[in-house]
Amino acid sequence: MLNLRKRGVATDGICPICGKEAESICHALFRCNIAKEVWSWWKECPIKICVENQDFSDIALGLLCAGTTRDLEILVVTAWAIWYNRKQCVHESKKQVAGQIWDFASSFLSNYKEASKYFQLGPAFCDVSWKKPPMGVYKINVDGATSERERNSSIGVIIRDFKGEAAAGLCRLINANFSVLETEVLAVEAGVLLAKYIGLQQIIIESNSLLPV
Ligand SMILES: [Zn+2]
User: Fold this and answer.
1) How are strands ordered across the β-sheet holding 152-160?
2) What is the mean pLDDT of residues 3-32?
3) How far is the CA of 8 from the centre of ligand 1 (A)?
4) Residue 34, burial from CB neighbour count under 10 angstroms (0-12, 13-18, 19+)
5) Among 28, 127, 130, 157, which is most exposed with the fewest C-beta within 10 angstroms?
6) First-to-last C-alpha distance (Å) of the chain
7) How far apart are CA 187 and CA 146, in angstroms?
8) Is residue 86 domain-shared with residue 163, that is, in the same domain?
């Protein structure tokens, strides 16, 4: 409402939910009746949330000192759920009770955490993770890319020992538009020649996996 008034929209500045106090971010998120009820569902909260003269950053800092990053996540997601409910009340005439808002925030956070596990796995989840070669053997990873628009191709090579430490590498732009397969073959050739150049005897080659995971 304060923002609306700043933009010249006529409002009385009173919280449209409780109709008792001037609406501010702190009132909406922490001191309005519905907000207090939502926060009361947080039984494990390590600090008092709905205290006068505390703004969002005071509460966040308090949680960082007394709690964990998980507590901070709960703070942010629950505050967002309270704010979302207010918007629904004002603009859509829909509202939820405190328990529903708390459950909505909790399940939103759990679902996000569950989904994040798969994002964090990244390439390993697709079973393309880099595997170390046996002791004494060097692994050559190569990759090639081709661009029809630029009408050129490029190759990359990296050679690592059994500890995963890089022994040599190269990348090269080729001013010709080879097919994907031809570019891969050129990358393999470059990898073998590089291994020979630095005097390696035992090698294995893998394409399309330049990055260790
Ligand atoms: Zn209110």
Assistant:
1) 166-174, 152-160, 138-147, 203-207
2) 78
3) 22
4) buried
5) 127
6) 49
7) 12
8) no
- Are 116 and 145 contained in the same domain? no
| Distance of alpha carbon 164 from alpha carbon 128, whole angstroms | 16
The band of 105, judged by pLDDT with boundaries at 50, 70 and 90, is very high
Answer whether residue 212 is part of any domain: no
| pTM recorded for the entire structure | 0.53
Domain final position from 122, 152, 184: 122
**pLDDT for 119:** 62
Q: How far is the CA of 189 from the centre of ligand 1 (A)?
A: 71
E-state strands within the chain: 138-147, 152-160, 166-174, 203-207
Q: 159: CA distance to ligand 1 center in Å?
A: 64
70 vs 77: CA distance, rounded Å? 11
User: Is the pLDDT confidence value at 106 over 90?
Assistant: yes
Residue 16 CA to ligand 1 center (angstroms) comes to 7
**According to the model, what pLDDT value does residue 210 have?**
45
In tens, the pLDDT along 27-73 reads 999 999 999 999 999 999 999 988 888 888 889 988 988 988 899 99
CA of 26 from ligand 1 middle (Å) equals 10
